[in-house]
């Protein structure tokens, strides 16, 4: 039973990355973003907390951002990546028209 608990704990800590081309975003991204799960087909990455999402988002996580070779790598929690089937689904990444300091991921 102890080995099962260790495995579960490690899996929860596992991260999965997505890459964004620097040309998608007009600003320099910080080392950390806020990831909001808005609904079943919509994630939002924000530089600063967004008050309306703080109240109704399904979840909120802080994610690490690294930059290399004109690409941003964003480490998503594995649970989010798996829940949204991001390995099996096409998704669109764009800067939000409503909030230019946020990045939308539409699934």
CA-based gyration radius? 15 Å
Structural class: alpha+beta
Please give the number of β-strands.
7
Give me the side-by-side strand order of the main sheet.
Answer: 1-5-4-2-3-7-6
Summarize the structure.
The protein has 107 residues and is an alpha+beta fold. The protein has helices at 2-13, 51-56, 78-83; strands at residues 15-21, 32-39, 42-46, 59-68, 71-77, 92-95, 102-106. The protein starts with a helix and ends with a strand.
Produce the secondary structure layout.
Layout: H1 2-13, E1 15-21, E2 32-39, E3 42-46, H2 51-56, E4 59-68, E5 71-77, H3 78-83, E6 92-95, E7 102-106
Plain-language structure description:
- 22% of the residues lie in helices and 43% in strands.
- The protein is globular and about 35 Å long.
- It has 107 residues and is α+β, with helices and mostly antiparallel strands.
- A 7-stranded antiparallel beta sheet has the order 1-5-4-2-3-7-6.
- It has one domain (31-106).
- The N and C termini lie far apart (37 Å).
- It has helices at residues 2-13, 51-56, 78-83, and strands at residues 15-21, 32-39, 42-46, 59-68, 71-77, 92-95, 102-106.
- The protein has 3 helices and 7 strands; from the N terminus they run αβββαββαββ.
- Residues 1-12 have low confidence and may be disordered.
- A hairpin with a 2-residue loop joins strand 4 and strand 5 (71-77).
């Amino acid at each position: 039973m102890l080995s099962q608990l260790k495995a579960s704990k490690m899996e929860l800590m596992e991260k999965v990355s997505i890459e964004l081309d620097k040309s998608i975003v007009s600003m320099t991204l910080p080392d950390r973003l806020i990831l909001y799960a808005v609904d079943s087909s919509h994630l939002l990455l924000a530089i600063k907390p967004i008050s309306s999402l703080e109240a109704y988002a399904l979840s909120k996580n802080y994610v690490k951002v690294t930059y290399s070779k004109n690409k941003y790598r964003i480490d998503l929690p594995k649970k989010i990546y798996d829940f949204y089937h991001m390995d099996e689904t096409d998704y669109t990444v764009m800067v939000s028209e409503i909030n230019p300091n946020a990045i939308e991921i539409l699934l």
